[in-house]
Amino acid sequence: MYKADVPFPVYCHECWWSDKWNPLDYGLEYDFETSFFEQFSNPFYYGHFRFNKEVYEGKHEPIVAKKLWDKVQEVMKERGRPRHKAKNEPQAYCGLISCGTCGMMVTGEYKIKTQKNGTQHFYTYYHCSKKRRDMKCPELGIRQEVLDGQISSLLQKVSLPPDWAEYLTDRLEKDKTDSAQSVSALVSENEKRIKDITVKLQRLLDGYLDQDIEKEIYRSEKSRLLSEKKSLEEEISRSQMKQKHWLEPMEKWIKDAQNIEKIALNTDLFAKKVCAKEIFGSNLLLHNKSVRASAPNFENSLANSGETAWATLRAAHSFVNSKPESFIREPLIGFAPMTSFLPRTCSAT
Question: Total domain count for the chain?
Fold first, then answer.
């Protein structure tokens, strides 16, 4: 069976089953630092050899035929494919909606349905992640197309109609003019006081140099005047910054609110997610295959308390056809966004 000059020991049947041979003799040529499949991919088996990442023709006798080696490579390639299921890619609305029954996050899942004739249909479903251990969530999944339509409808309810935007822009321009006049008057008055203090400081220095004022009195008065001057300078800076502090965000909010209608009618799901996240935060719930903004479980949320610009705009939309337009445009607390950077007294009304 084996040639006489084989480079390894050959044992008869009786010796093989006895303890007279060392099984490690057959493993000396095995490289434990190389994987199993890599060793069987070595071209040395069919008469070539690899050196420095390059293949050369060898002069040794091939161990197997090239055809057999190629077939082994095909088998290893086929059997080496991963057997696990393909990982679902993150879907557009993941991380946006919570389950209205158990409170867990809603996740997306990609499904492929194959008919008997071989036709394949591709769907994306959103459903509760069902990670709550103390209950079995009964909520069912919802198709992405249906969910997208519901989110688009919610976004349209907080869009700013063109006539409302025009009205707010006009009122904002009026507030901007009034604010500029008020700030200008304050700045002029404080600058005059700063000039007076500068004159006093110079007179104080002259009196000290002429030795008409004692050193302790000079230091005390100088410190008081410098402190007053610094306070006036900071008041000027604060008044100028305060004007931009709410006017510029208000202008941006009006533009964003006008653009929501376009986003809601678009097919860009990720743009809708970003917009919905900014408007509703974590207050979107999926219950009975229907998405709603906020819920009884979130009574203290900003969206329910009316302390966000978007909540105020949703409330204004709810009054359409039931309240006069003057009531909608000029509610008691104003229609302007009241965010963390907009004081409650700042309003476009």
Answer: 1
In a domain, 50, yes or no: yes
Unique residue bearing structure tokens 């939309």: 317
Specify the pLDDT at position 90. Answer: 59
- Nearest residue to 157 via CA among 290, 313, 52, 325: 313
Domain that holds residue 51: 13-79
Phi, psi of 74 (to 5 degrees): -65, -40
* Separation of CA 103 from chain center: 21
110 vs 99: CA distance, rounded Å? 19
C-alpha distances out from residue 156 to 45, 268, 319, Å: 69, 15, 15
Name residue 342's amino acid: L
Helices (H), ranges, 210-293 = 215-265, 269-280
- Averaged pLDDT, groups of 10, the chain, 349 residues long: 63 65 55 67 83 81 86 80 51 88 89 82 89 90 92 87 83 80 84 90 88 87 88 84 74 86 89 88 87 56 53 73 63 39 34
Determine the residue type at 163. D
pLDDT, tens digit, 9 for 90 and up, residues 74-87: 888 777 655 444 44
What's the CA gap between 84 and 82, in Å, rounded? 6
* 3-state secondary structure (DSSP) of residue 112: strand
Asked, for residue 262, whether it belongs to a domain, the answer is no
To the question of pTM greater than 0.70 for the whole model, the response is no
DSSP secondary structure, 291-309, as one string: EEES-GGGTTSHHHHT-SH
| Cα gap 321→290, rounded to integer Å | 25
Give a yes or no: residue 63 inside a domain.
yes
Is residue 162 a part of any domain in this protein?
no
pLDDT tens-digit profile of 90-109? 578 888 999 988 989 999 88
